[in-house]
């Protein structure tokens, strides 16, 4: 039997992993092995919340070296990461400044200024991308205004996965799915938008033409001298996760659940109507068509609570939260106040107190507040998507690390009154692998990939149960999530 060895490097906003997938051509059996897992933590450098790119690169190279020492010669390597953040290079290919994180406060006020000067509808019709205060468009404007000494040295701007491609191969590439997250790509012609670049104050020469997933960027030379193709997969981790989501019918939605929750549907055409703009729906590029979705703050809130309270046993906390009464206290997870507060526990408690709700005091009560609030926000977004497509959605596929949370899955099913299918857990990794297998000719297309994933990675179904607690609190939650308070709007707006 013939075997393919595929390496997927999958970096999320809180952790990273080097994974080995083994594919048997004749049986179409697909297995995953974790080679190396590591934390991805922001660091404070030069006054900015930044990414430790040197540390990430070292971890990636150690994982690849481990495979080399095992005598495994990969057929290809692919990298996916989070979106919007970029790396600046000078003419010699050396990094300029820090790789500033989207959670840094330097973009405060920039989105409001863009809307005021360029017009909200104009920006949306040009890009189809949701308004988030940390989009790359606003990061570059902040760079232009606040770090002119950095800007003067720049020759190239690369998204995070393209930078890592460059570090492995020495070749420059701008992959399409991640490029769309910048709010700088023109949705009509698929290239960088001159008007938006001019407003940001940066030259178009920093950027090359975006390329669709599946091209070979270059080759990584292993310590043993093997030249391994590095394939630009769908490098935005959500794009890869959606590729691996077994969507088998037109009325199914996906929820990529992790630090962020990304809820949406697939579409061959972008949604650019005034209603889509009002709902702050985004049209990010996918391997096929568009990922029409909405950003939800997700399990970032829980991650911060666990870190602040030094909780390591997440399974025990979830069980304790299940024993808490439903919907005692609610928050709007997409409120800007939760993007990067000094203290997440206090911020949640303050939000509850301001709304005259009972203040959660224990870790279990805090977790239940987060879970109930997320479930209600999922319901709200599902409704928005259903209204825009003029027909209801009838099932939801939850993928990613968050799909391992049985309580949140059940609450989601109860709140939305839809069946929820959980899995696969390593969706972004599998989408990364699948894109490589398609590029190598092992799979025909995305439908073929999804069929193989369904065969190799069984799903768990959560049927909707009694939703009386959620039904009784719909109006209460709606009052919390008025547009002026949502993540869609700038803090200075």
Strand order, sheet with most strands: 14-15-13-12-16-17-18
**What kind of assembly state do the chains in view correspond to?**
single chain
Distance between termini?
61 Å
Query: Mean pLDDT, nearest integer?
Result: 95
The outline comes out as globular
Strands, total number = 18
Poorly predicted parts: 483-493
Helix percentage: 25-40%
Task: Please compute the radius of gyration using only Cα atoms.
Answer: 22 Å
**Helix- and strand-based class?**
alpha+beta
β content, as a range? 15-25%
What is the number of helical segments per DSSP (H or I, 4+ residues)? 19
Main sheet attributes: strand count, strand direction, barrel closure = 7 strands, mixed
Notes on the protein architecture:
It is a single chain. The protein has 493 residues and is of the alpha+beta class. Helix content is 38%, strand content 20%. The protein is built from 19 helices and 18 strands. It has a seven-stranded mixed beta sheet, sandwiched between helices. Strands 3-2-1-6-11-10 form a six-stranded mixed beta sheet, with helices on both faces. Strand 14 and strand 15 form a beta hairpin. Helix 9 packs across helix 16 and helix 14 crosses helix 15. It is globular and about 60 Å long. It starts with a strand and ends in a 13-residue tail after the last helix. The relative contact order is 0.13. The C terminus is likely disordered.
How would you summarize this macromolecular structure in one to three sentences?
This protein is of the alpha+beta class and 493 residues long. It is built from 19 helices and 18 strands.
